[in-house]
């Protein structure tokens, strides 16, 4: 489909149209933060500033009921109890509007884990199949952005269904997938052919603003070689508070916990985001904890994203370079600096 143009004064009308048949989430300013909220006609979209949090919850909610259950006694035979289970799946058609390319690409990391030949997470898949992403080119990447280190870029379309490029008085609207092109079938969008050159300039200028990329190709082997280097991991994690902000705000962190909440003979099974930087994450019922110190947990976080995950998934790194963990860390830990240190660290003879 040919590119179209969305004039600034037609943005709200297009969003209203999209929200007639979709739950439409838009970035919205709340205090100092920009968060995704459902568009309700009055929601003012914030497309200038990069969202403070990714739209991870659109496909993988922070807390979701997986099923309800109920034990039922047979009054004729009280020793006999049956269990009724009702699974809950959310298949609401959803459009995430105005996310950045890196945020949409984050779900590609989820897919390799949750939708495989061996196992499929049906709750995840139901939302994933029903969610489309209208992303916006990062015309002014932040100083903390490093998507170009991990195979992305400010105009990357991996994970997008439609891409918007900000122009004077509006956006160029380009379809990336067939389902995305269907969203562009709107009277509020006009022919965009005469704005395509301008959009190319915006994309080129954004790419030129990115710093030089660090070569991460040797990171998995280097992380393996440093696995037993306690001094290295203690030094790089020294400042960390184990608060977990970096995991909750990360568009590629997919760990969760499952709990049952009972009330008498019935209850609900909940899935909730979990955080590998917390002591409790690996604490075992016996009292043993295989990652007792923050250095162990920090090594796991970095090792997983830049070593174990790429080793298991064709070299794909489990980080999209959004830089949010750098911005949100209360003690200014910088994942780029840590990875650079990993690559530059001397490996002692005999270390594996
Ligand atoms: S946000 Fe910073 S202090 Fe908190 S767990 Fe992550 S690295 Fe540690
Ligand atoms: S590790 Fe940090 S930079 Fe990478 S995707 Fe997660 S929050 Fe973004």
Distance between the termini: 53 Å
Biggest pleated sheet: 8 strands, mixed
Q: Care to count the β-strands?
A: 12
Our estimate of the beta-strand percent is 15-25%
Radius of gyration, in angstroms, nearest whole number: 23 Å
Number of domains: 2
Short description:
The protein has 352 residues and is α+β, with helices and mostly antiparallel strands. Helices cover 30% and strands 24% of the residues.
Which features does this protein show?
352 residues; alpha+beta; flat; 12 strands; binds iron/sulfur cluster
Describe the structure.
Residues 231-261, 308-341 form the 4Fe-4S ferredoxin-type domain. Keywords: Iron, Iron-sulfur, Metal-binding. One of its GO terms (molecular function) is metal ion binding. The protein is α+β, with helices and mostly antiparallel strands and 352 residues long. Helix content is 30%, strand content 24%. It has 2 domains: 4-60 and 89-209, no CATH class; 219-344, no CATH class. It is built from 11 helices and 12 strands. Strand 11 (256-263) and strand 12 form a beta hairpin. The chain is flat and about 70 Å long. The protein starts with a strand and ends in an 8-residue tail after the last helix. 36% of the residues are buried. The site of one iron/sulfur cluster has 13 residues, from helix 10.
